[in-house]
Amino acid sequence: MRKCMLHRNKIIIFFLTLILLFNLSACGGNSNASDDGQINLYIGVKDRESLNMIKYIINEYKKANPKVELNVDNSIGEKIDGDINDNSNMDVVFISRTDMLNLVRKSALSDMRNLYRENNLNERYYSVSKSFGRFNDRYYGIAIFPYTIEILCNEDAFNKLNLKMPNSMNEFMGSLKALNSLQKRVPVVLNEDVDINTALFSIVSNNLISMKKLEDIYDSGPSAYKSLGEMQECFHRLNDMVKNGYVNKDTFEIGNGSTIQKFNGNDIPVIITSSYYINDIKNTRIKCLQYDNSASDNVKVPVMADVIMSTPVNSKNMDQINDFIKFILSDNIQKKLYNKGFITGNRKVNTPKKGINKSIIEHLKNSTEDNIAVIYNMPKNFRYSISLKIDDIFSGKYTGNEWNEVVEESY
Question: Which Gene3D superfamilies match (predicted)?
């Protein structure tokens, strides 16, 4: 009897050992097959400035998390929605706002409200940075690199031309007329995704229409857009500027990095540029044009953002994804970006210094959804038609029907 019991106990122990080994083997197999050690990133932006910043934050993550494998996939052509819809392995995507809006309407992006709450983004990030990732009152992303379009004036260069330094938008218009008479062009130095005409259109239009109104009818068809009569007013104002001698087809020219260096000297009185380049401005005699908030025709500072960070609905590796996003949005990484000269969307780390830096931070701090440049709340194909219409206006070909023509050409 005793021998039988011992034999039976041995059999039980044997089977228990087999079960334990099987479970351990299964657990080990699941660990090796899971995506916990890797993150699949999709980069759907192409301009050099945005790619530089994305590269920096990815490298910072790699240094802090050497055991996590980052797989980076870059977009090819204009098939971003197809790339993301057809690939179930995308974890985090870096895309434009217009691409974000297109993907949301196809139910391809996750609602990020929980991430906003867990990371206290409502308190830590500027209102406009959050607004870039919002659609239909839900959050599908966040703009990590918002930048303002600034009008910068070099006081010494104005003095050399015997011109008064402008202190308001109205005075700046007078300066433009004087510069035209002296055949002095105004360089425009912007991120690659924006041209001179659409930047001007954004400056003129941002106080004329509610961005929420535009967002609500996004890609809803020609009749919805034609109902926005206020959009024609943007072209009308540009035409008035031409008729009154403030601007013409020779007023502006495309600038680049070397233009910024010349501007640091005293040969260029005015440039229009994005805050991305502000770290390259070294001359303390250069000032940001201040806007008169009490004026009835006040122009809001346009805010642009070419990079929205979002997560597709088919993302599966949520723990690793959340860790990556928390790392990128952390005060520590945002502070590093700020120390490198980038003004970020994180209000906590943007410590105002003085001069231009202080002015730009103030502009971002006071910006709302209505400061989002108008082109970011329209389908991308609108931009080309808008730019052509502005070329026509600069050449004296104003029809009074530009907006309807833009809508018809875009659909």
Answer: Periplasmic binding protein-like II
Q: DSSP readout, 148-182?
A: EEEEEEEHHHHHHTT-PPP-SHHHHHHHHHHHHHT
What is 38-146+305-349's CATH topology? D-Maltodextrin-Binding Protein; domain 2 (3.40.190)
Q: d(Cα 118, Cα 124) in Å, to the nearest integer?
A: 12
pTM comes to 0.84
**DSSP assignment of 283-346, as one string?**
-TTEEEPPP-TTSTTPPPPPEE-S-EEE-BTT---HHHHHHHHHHHHSHHHHHHHHHTT---SB
**How far is Cα 272 from Cα 269, in angstroms, rounded to an integer?**
11
Q: 150-303+373-410 belongs to which CATH class?
A: alpha beta
Fold matches, 38-146+305-349 and 150-303+373-410 = yes
Both tokens assigned to 299: 């122009």
d(CA 39, CA 372): 31
Token pair 């535009």 is at which residue? 214
The model's pLDDT over 108-158, given as tens digits with 9 standing for 90+, comes to: 999 999 989 999 999 999 999 999 999 988 999 999 889 999 999 999 999
Q: Pull the structure tokens for residue 340.
A: 């490198």
